[in-house]
Design goal:
homodimer, alpha/beta, 7-stranded mixed beta sheet, two-stranded antiparallel ribbon, 9 helices, 16% strand
Chain lengths: 215, 215
């Protein structure tokens, strides 16, 4: 049984969504070869999953395999890219052009998933007006006007925790719908704005705590 | 009821662990002020959690509050730091000194949580022998010998996905117990080695998919 949201769309469980993002790069590589079809079993074996799980995950995208042959690779790649939104570029603003911000701006992998950082913002006057990886660094004073003008939907916070809430408030006020927050702080955000927290210090702690339990 | 592992240690649920890593920076800041005690309600209100949850999370660390006064702040900070392992420095090797690797090496927040990157490794001969944020970049040929010599427990993979498995194999062979993997690939690793995957492209996709459903 699949769970539907209010508008009747199937809600894809987050673990399936995460696995689909791992199948896609593998399938893309495969599609540059001579093979035309791939089975769930082949994908599962190559990536260390179980076939039934792979089959279920792919079923969410609406594509079905052919008996004994599997999925047509190029069609599957296309469908997955559309399904995951990797083909619809989202104009994004990043706030905080420090080390982490720079890494995000320069990370080539994000372009493949539709992330288009069109401008970055920083509080440091020395950085304003400079460019990093072709992206201009601007003053926060211009943030709200530019969100409207450039149709920006997504904001990334890579600023220190002390200023994260203030930045989030500016983002919400400017009309941004989704925030990707790298600051180690819980943001106070209205319900209609989606927040994805990426707390690296907390992931590290989880790992290091597990490590303490085995060593 | 608390769940115990084989050696009788209480297993802390990951969400509690993650929340504790968020309470700690807040409490540290508080401890530099004049207040001596803090209640679960105050912490909950400041960080947007519910008091009963905060009380439960803190109970895992073994510290108990006093009626009407709450927890002694400096004792709580100390206990939390020990509990989360932020005071026991873990010698760590990082492999892949590209943009993401550089961001991890330069991120000041990790030092507070006990992460000590003692060397970095890269395949690019031009990088070998140089230093970044005081950390020397070495050749993979030296990896295994140095793991033993420096008692390294933790490895970070910030290399491209194509080389991630090969690097993981080298880490396991060298005797590393925990791997923090930033490459968007599922690693094939023996059960006694702990892996924490940090797939940023996949987090971005989850956010952007949710965004599609509301906009």
């Amino acid at each position: 049984m699949q769970i539907k949201d209010k508008s009747g769309l199937t809600i894809v469980p987050v673990p399936s969504l995460r696995r689909l993002t791992i199948y896609l790069p593998y399938l893309k590589e495969l599609s540059s070869g001579v093979t035309e079809y791939v089975s769930a079993t082949t994908i599962a074996r190559a990536l260390g999953y179980i076939p039934i799980q792979v089959r279920k995950d792919i079923a969410y995208t609406g594509i079905t395999g052919k008996p004994r042959r599997g999925y047509p690779i190029s069609e599957l790649v296309n469908q997955l890219e559309v399904f995951l939104g990797w083909k619809s570029y989202k104009n994004t603003f990043l706030v905080g052009a420090g080390n982490l911000g720079r890494a995000i701006m320069g990370y080539p992998g994000f372009k493949d998933c539709g992330l288009q950082i069109v401008a970055a913002f920083d509080a440091d006057p020395a950085k304003i007006g400079t460019r990093l990886f072709g992206i201009e660094i601007l003053s926060m004073d211009e943030f709200k006007t530019l969100v409207k003008r450039m149709g920006v939907q997504l904001g990334i916070i890579t600023a220190p925790e002390q200023s994260a809430q203030e930045i989030a408030d500016i983002m919400v006020d400017a009309g941004i719908h989704g925030i990707w927050n790298f600051a180690p702080v819980k943001l106070n955000i209205p319900d209609d704005v989606i927040v994805q927290n990426e707390n690296l210090a907390s992931s590290l702690t989880v790992l290091s705590k597990k490590l303490d339990q085995i060593v």
